[in-house]
Amino acid sequence: MQRPINVTGNRTSKVESLTPAEVAGIMEEDGKESVVILDVREPWEYESDTGHVKDSVLIPMNQVPENLQKIRELSKKRIGVICNSGERSFYTCRYLQDNGITNVFNVEGGIIKWLLSGLEVEYGAVRAE
Predict the structure, then answer these.
(1) Strand, coil or helix: what is 62?
(2) Which of 5, 19, 37, 85 can bridge 53 by disulfide, Cβ–Cβ 3.0-4.6 Å?
(3) What CATH number has the domain bearing residue 97?
(4) Which domain range does residue 79 map to?
């Protein structure tokens, strides 16, 4: 049974939000391997015509609680959380912070703003891990 994410959060810490251009700048300056993009949309959204950030990791928002260990392993890098518009990713960042994963940031505006910023996406099905 999947546990829902508590969207109200328990902490008073602020969620850092970075624009897609800022994220791309960090990836260019520090190397793409310095940041992992965690996409919390549903698989059908990830595979849709909006595409997804290249090499992003798909874990739908409702599956985040059961994948905390996997996300902890990703947290050796900074984690940029992205969704469609920035709302689900914001609440996911708050949840991750509440669970001790603090090096996360929200990708402001989601994949929509990423696309409108002219940044690269890829299209296609979810890759098996």
Answers:
(1) helix
(2) 37
(3) 3.40.250.10
(4) 17-116
